Amino acid sequence: MRRMRPFTSGAIALAVATVIFVLPFVFIALQAVKSKSEASRLDFTLPQQWLFWDNLAAVFQARDYQLVLAYFNSTLITVVSVTILILLSAMVGYVMQRRKTRWNAVASGALFMGLMMPPAVVPTIGLLQEIGLFKTITGMILIQVAYNLSFSILLYRAFISTIPRDLDEAALIDGAKPWQIFFRVILPLLKPVTVTNIVVQSIAIFNDFTNPLYYLPGKENVTVQLTLYNFQSMYTSQYNLLFMNILLVTVPPLIVFIFFNRQIVAGMTAGAVKG
C-alpha cells in the first residue's frame, strides 16, 4: 500500500498540471488554426480546414506589420532593463551584505517596501511628464528597473552571504581595489543567481501588459502584449487571429523557460542550500 502512494500522488499531480497548464495551451493552439466562424464557437473540436499559415500571415500583416514593431520594442525594453537590473542589483546586494552599518536596517526596510507596496500610477505618470520621459522607451525601461529592483537585490544579497569574506581579504592583500574585487572576484561567482535573474526578469518584463498600458501609450510604442487589442473590439472579434497572436506572444518566453528551468531552480535554492 505504501509503495502505491508515490504513484498515486504523482498521477494526481500530473493530472492537475495537465488541466492547469496543458489544456489551456492546446485550446489556444486549436483556435489559432481555425477559421473565423469556427473559432467564434470557442470549443475543443478540430478545425475542418487547418489555416495556420493564413492566420499567421494575417496577424503579421495587421496594421502595417505592427507586430514586428511590437517585438522590437519589447525586446529592446527587456534587454536594456535586465542589463541595468543585473548590474545595479548585484552591486547593491554586495555592498549591503559586506558593509554592515546603521543604514542597513533602513535600506532593508526600503527593499521590503518596494516588494509589498503597490505602484502609485498617477504620481508616477506626473513625474515622468515633468522630466519628459512619459510615452518614451527610456521612461518605460526606468519603470521596469525600479519595479523589479527589490526582488533582484534580495536574490543577490542571499547568494553573496554564502561567499566567504576570505576571498575579498585575499584580493585586498594582493592589491586589488574595491571595484576590481567586485568585478573580477565576486561577479563571476554570481553566475547561478545571475542566470536566474535574467530568465525570471526577462519573462516578467517581456510579458508585462499593465505597465506599458499605463506608461507607454501610442501606436509607435506598442509592445507585444498590447497587440492583443488588434483583433478584439466592441463590434467584432476575430478570435482565430486573437489566439494566433496569443500563441506568438506566448512561444518565446515558453522556449526560454523550457531551456533554463533547471538554472532557475538552482539559482533560487543555491543560497538556501549553502546557508
Automatic annotation (TrEMBL):
> Where does it primarily localize?
membrane
Which GO BP terms apply? transmembrane transport
Q: Which residues cross the membrane?
A: 12-33, 70-96, 103-121, 141-160, 181-206, 239-260
A GO cellular component annotated for this chain's UniProt record is: plasma membrane
Question: What's the protein's topology in the membrane?
Answer: Multi-pass membrane protein
Q: Where in the cell is it found?
A: Cell inner membrane; Cell membrane
Q: Which parts of the sequence belong to the ABC transmembrane type-1 domain?
A: 71-260
The family classification in the record reads: Belongs to the binding-protein-dependent transport system permease family.
Subunit: The complex is composed of two ATP-binding proteins (UgpC), two transmembrane proteins (UgpA and UgpE) and a solute-binding protein (UgpB).
> What is this protein called in UniProt?
sn-glycerol-3-phosphate transport system permease protein UgpE
What gene is it encoded by? Answer: ugpE
